[in-house]
Amino acid sequence: AEPVKVGFLVKQAEEPWFQDEWRFAEQAAKDKGFTLVKIGIPNGEKMMAAIDNLAAQKAVGFVICAPDVKLGVAVNRAAKRHNLKVMSVDDQLVDGAGKPIADIPHMGISGYEIGKQVGQGLLAEMKARGWKLDEVGVLRVAFDQLPTAKNRTMGAVDALKAAGVPAANVVDAPQAKTDTESAFNAANIAFTKNAKFKRWVAFGLNDEAALGAVRAAEGRGIKQDAMLAIGIGGSQTALNEFTKPTPTAFYGTVLISPKRHGYETAVAVYEWATAGKAPAPVTLTAGTLMTRQNQAELRKQMGL
Amino acid sequence: MASLQFDNISKVFPGVKALNGVSFEARAGQVMGLLGENGAGKSTLLKILGGQYKPDGGRLLLEGQERHFTSAGDAIAAGVAIIHQELQYVAELTVAENVLLGRLPTRFGLVDHKAARRLVAEQLAAIGVDLDPAARLSELSIAQRQMVEICKAVMQDAKVIAFDEPTSSLSHRETEILFRLVKRLRSEGRTLIYISHRLEELYELCDACTIFRDGRKIVTHEVMAEVPRERLIADMVGRELQDIYDYRSRRHGPMRLEARGLHSARLPEPLSFAMRGGEVLGFFGLVGAGRSELMRLLYGADARRGGEVLLDGKTVSAAGPSAAIAAGIVLCPEDRKEQGILAHSSVAENINISCRRHGLAGGIFLRHGREAQRADDFIQKLRIKTPSREQEIRLLSGGNQQKVILARWLAEPGLKVLILDEPTRGIDVGAKNEIYKIIHDVAAEGCCVIVISSELPEVLGISDRLIVMRDGRISGELSREQASETAALALALPDGAPAAPLH
Amino acid sequence: MNTTTLAQRPAMTSPARALLKEHSMTLGYALLFAVLAFSVENFFSGANIVGLLLSVAQIGMVACTMMLCLASRDFDLSVGSTIAFAGVLGAMVLERTGSVGLAIGSGLLAGALIGAGNGVLIAYLRVNALIATLATMLMVRGLAFIASKGQAVGIADEGFISFGDTTFLNLPLPIWMTALCFLVFGVLLNHTVFGRNTLAIGGNPEAARLAGVKVEQLRVWIFLLQGVVTALAGLILSARITSGQPNAATGFELDVISACVLGGVSLQGGKARIFGVVIGVLIMGTVENVMNLLNVDAFYQYLVRGLILLAAVLLDQLKTRGERRG
Amino acid sequence: MNTTTLAQRPAMTSPARALLKEHSMTLGYALLFAVLAFSVENFFSGANIVGLLLSVAQIGMVACTMMLCLASRDFDLSVGSTIAFAGVLGAMVLERTGSVGLAIGSGLLAGALIGAGNGVLIAYLRVNALIATLATMLMVRGLAFIASKGQAVGIADEGFISFGDTTFLNLPLPIWMTALCFLVFGVLLNHTVFGRNTLAIGGNPEAARLAGVKVEQLRVWIFLLQGVVTALAGLILSARITSGQPNAATGFELDVISACVLGGVSLQGGKARIFGVVIGVLIMGTVENVMNLLNVDAFYQYLVRGLILLAAVLLDQLKTRGERRG
Ligand SMILES: Nc1ncnc2c1ncn2[C@@H]1O[C@H](COP(=O)(O)OP(=O)(O)OP(=O)(O)O)[C@@H](O)[C@H]1O
Ligand SMILES: Nc1ncnc2c1ncn2[C@@H]1O[C@H](COP(=O)(O)OP(=O)(O)OP(=O)(O)O)[C@@H](O)[C@H]1O
Ligand SMILES: O[C@@H]1[C@@H](O)[C@@H](O)CO[C@H]1O
Ligand SMILES: [Mg+2]
Ligand SMILES: [Mg+2]
User: Which chain positions lie within coiled-coil regions (chains C, D) (predicted)?
Assistant: First the structure.
């Protein structure tokens, strides 16, 4: 018989995170004996084409991390039209009004919650270092064009504010693109404008954003003892910082598990389509703060 | 021994046998004239000589040695310089840089701009042209650009120099300079080839001449001076031509076109003139006299500062060429390449571009059949040499391109005023004769025809009346009876200059 | 004098050959299609062909007007932003008023205004087309973000959504719309004064002007049309994805321009063939479709796409070899 | 006889006016700068100016060669990918061999090969420059992803890193490098046969060819140079961000081309001024810098950037008004 095909559609195929997710989904396919079809869907148009393409290949269903959560209705309609099982991963799909779509099972994180974890990580380390909260500048490397980026960074801001960081200390550094150089330039200007702060914490939507802030700080003589940055993702960018001989201001990154997301969602859709076993409506996985100290151990735990 | 020898040269383009076994030779210290109707293959031969085209057959010998040029650079290195029919300059570079393009002097690896300017200034002075070597070509008039091209060729210090219709955009003054230059080069023992459609020029300059027709050599006359004019024309055109101007006197209608106080930034004062239906009005003047400027104002091609144009008593909108055309006024521009042709479009397209608006199906759709028919009619009527109406116009010889542009305007059904700016530039005698006939036919229908020309015999030969311009002003008006070369030149030349005929 | 019989034609320009040359790209594509139909599983199935066509519906529509734009020696980088803005605006108007007509009308109007703005900047104010449309690209994208506060605007209206997925003779509406665009703009290009004048101003604007073409006006119209068609594509896209997305269609402009250039439209102006554009668009879509069917790794997709682009133009180049001299 | 005075020049090209016109953009920028220095807090501080300059270091370097490329009537979309690839490759070689020399060498070599490849495709195989460099852009980006498996490649070598942050007379090395590039390419453009011939082939390729300029060879050299300089920019960037990132510098090509066009380089070829390019680059950097200093909302930044671009070219346009006919 023809092998069963399950699709795995991700919004940013070039991002290491999704490469990892795909890798673990492949693993699942091997273990369970189905074929995985991986397609990158950078925008809504490509997403629709990919779903059509899956149907043409006679896939039974697919896992999706959509380029925008509001594409939920479109995903749902397309899946229904082609009679495909669908499950979302990472970002939960919502309808036009912003309500999660009930009949699409989801496994993932909440950008806002991950952001909060970033904030809490920063707070803990500031406390350990004995920094006074009202003397610390908070650098939010912002890319508000991307809803998940906004959710994440606002989560971090809210956590910091809740712990007593004055709202006035929060400095936005809007980056033009999501790469390190843009973050660098944006952070540079923010430091110029706010020379009054001698100590800084920084974060952004991903590790690259945090790294840009760190490099910009170094360029202005703000070193590891006066600066703390926490990224999101646990990518190679972060690991590179951890393996440097001396610690840098890149303090940590909130690691989420591409293994669980990739492996478990692929299996869930496969079993749903073949054995009729519907996945749990919502599974939220937590992030873990990874630092220089616990990185080796943590990565081993996660099977990375 | 012949310094330059063409031996059985052939060249084929898709659909065209441009050269068919052409053989002749030219000696050092000789000016060899090339004549032939438009599309006869003259320019093609020069392009082969210049390394631009590879011949499909035959040999090219320089001083007895067979040469195979694979690029223009090879030809230059072998001592061949060509002044092309289509000017080849870089508008954004300076005079000095254009002249020395490919051979700029350097010092310590850097361009020696000073030396370049000096060298070029010397050469320009030697030729007798007053031009700033540091001026950009884009700032110069066509005539000045042509002089730069000539200077470029001369500075290559070549043994063989070929001129492809160098005078077509020059007027008297530069023409004189050029003639002196050619004579000097001949006396220096160089081999010169000279293409022109102006027979007077050929008689003045050439020692011998070779005549082409349809890609074949018809004959070489070793002594130019001994060949009668009629014989040249007959060899070239393949038939006898009596009076080439073909002037017929007509009864003129009532006043039709009136230009009142046309004014622009480039004209020193407002200009006015008027003409009757059926009249052929000639405009004569030196380069830069303002004739083109005036006609462009009339046509709405340039913004006016003031003035108005009346046609049959009604004001013509100054909104632009389209408005003028709608009123029945058309202009055939002087710069064919830049302002006339749609280079990559077909001959048919170039003919139909404007007049097609009259015969649309349902007021919207083109009638392809009718357009094709019209194109074919004109190709035949004007004897346009092209493999088909679908040929891209840029692949036609210069003179044939000119005929296509003319056809574009003759095709206008509501034609009332036909303005021709240097209409016979680069056109062979036979075709000139045809164009003159057309001019007279158009006038006979009651239209106004304005002809700008820098060829004095031509304007004198075809006009009912002549307006002469100088430095942006109308310096005088001559009836056909009054008009003579002396009278016209007296009005055209700056005060005090000798007003003697040139040839 | 007689009209000359021009030397017998060399073999290579016989009408048959010319026809072959004219349609070499089409033949090439047909061949590619046949090979793929036999070798790639699921490629030649109704569902897949429909999917393929749908995937190029937006590009196809906009390529029609981009063809005119390039043919007139212009350039438009703002189409991606216009798609996004029209989609967002349509969705917002729909949300507020509930009227499909108003939503579509306002989207198209916005497109027309953006296009006309580009046209005026370029034709009358003589701003370089690259910079002018880059500026509108930025501004319109900004407006899309500002209007939507950076969030996708959901669409719930079934009537509007059906716009994107109603089928007619088994083909969804967007495909019919695209086909219609090709038809209309093909006729416009080849059988109307508008189209011919467009080619003329691309070939030589000064000559065209002197021949009576209202160059400035025509250029504004071309951009305006482009704006309207692009907005339409944006509205259809928003219907298909049931939301107006402010960051939709980034990089879209390059895809459209590539499709046109692949189809033989010259960036130097003056040259365009609607048939070529159809093929260019299909090539782009087919490559993507097949790579996904074959499960080509995302990173290698870049490589393959680049190679295919090159192969396509090189093939096309071969046939024009020898026409020009090196 | 006497020398003839050929038509006198119109008054408007007097040397003083010409000079003013030539440098109007520079004056405009100087004015803008002065206004900003007084009105925007923190703008005119050493740290900010250094930051501003750093932010345009890469664009500035590549704009130098892009200027040549555009001047010769070509086009290069592959620079962004080349930056990424050179950075990734350099970092990988450094990781494997530990030799800074080898890392830089291999990065530059890769750049040279990519550039030469573009050049050969365009000059000899006559592939349209847009398509050719779009194809290389895709392929090189693909290679960057494949080589690095999509992951950032870390750089630990202090020697290499110092490349990006050593300062000299208070200015970081990348700024000096950019200044050097402007100097070198300014001289190249204006004072070498190479530069003049580049303008010639852009202004009128046929004329250049007829004058014996080896057009094809020259074009390959231009692209090769572009590749090398771009790779250098990529290596410097990787040193600055202490890693080679495969998705660095997306959209970079458009920024560079815009800077050049802002600086008066013509897309039709034949026109280029190094000074203009410097100003173009500075305008791009300044606008971004000031918007962030003024805390302009991200969404409104799009709008402002578009408006500024337009304003800059419109201003520049005013002065050339009336120069052309019609
Ligand atoms: N590149 C080309 N491709 C196709 N046909 C060409 C090409 N160049 C020239 N021809 C054709 O070859 C023939 C000879 O052209 P050529 O330019 O040599 O004529 P010519 O004698 O110089 O005419 P004119 O006096 O009008 O300049 C013409 O029929 C022309 O259309
Ligand atoms: N593009 C231009 N820029 C500046 N001045 C110009 C331009 N074209 C023409 N002129 C000037 O305008 C005046 C009138 O030129 P015009 O071309 O009308 O003369 P003409 O009598 O037609 O001579 P020609 O034989 O050169 O066509 C001259 O002084 C000329 O130098
Ligand atoms: O785009 C992010 C990705 O980078 C990873 O962090 C998982 O969540 C997705 O939303
Ligand atoms: Mg000729
Ligand atoms: Mg004139």
Answer: none
